[in-house]
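Moderator note: this is an archived Q&A kept for reference. The question asked for a predicted structure of one protein chain; the sequence and the answer are reproduced below.
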Amino acid sequence: MPLTLPARLRPLLPKRWRRARPRVAVIRLSGAIGAVSPFRAGLSIAGVAASLERAFAMKGIVAVALVINSPGGSPAQSHLIHRRIRALAAEKSLPVIAFVEDVAASGGYMIACAADEIVADATSLIGSIGVVSAGFGFDRLIDRIGIDRRVHTQGESKAMLDPFRPEDPDDVLRLKAIQADVQDLFITLVKGRRPTIDAGGENPFTGAVWTGRQALRLGLIDALGDARSTLRERYGDRVELRFVAEKQGSLVARLLRRTAPGSTSLAAEALAAVEDRALWARYGL
């Protein structure tokens, strides 16, 4: 455990020992957002709130670094995490720097926009500023094998986009309206946080992704680099990186959650894993 001396005694130390080492809190935000199941936990405000609080409350820090590697996911969870980061940054008056690894796309990029600066590798994938909804249609399958789907609702839209019924054009229009509203929020957020975006250049709001080098040209990020090199360049070679680990709970508690009555079935878990994999596969990862 390092020895900490009172400030009044520091002048008695050799000059090279008197300088306080700048300290940066580092928190990793990795994985799909909102993909939560008994076997796997994606990024969510409930899962990262405590880690964010610990990072911003760390004594003697000069900044908070977010190391992001996420293909996106839930718009709501992405927005909640974004807002919590901004609230803590304002409360503690600390700068926030986001460092992108493989990808910061869709909700992952929304979280990155909570930072005052975004730094990415030249080969990172950035952007995907858009909204997507995907599912399956099983109506022809159950008709073929002679199964009746019986759904009783109060409210004409309660069973909207039921995968076991033929797709209703009115349901699709309703979904498109919801997506448009979320997209408007997303674009407004990005424009507010990223004044460097070149409005006269390529449209960054098509849902496309770009490499780090392309994203720098478009103003989606501020610089190319990695966390260690950038922070050493910014705060000196003596900068101390303090990593904040997310609390996962005990092994016994996690095993109990997996075997608890009412846990999601193995088939549902497999489907969730496929959906999670599909999010990453969209970016070739």
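Archived answer notes: The chain is about 40% helix and 15% strand.
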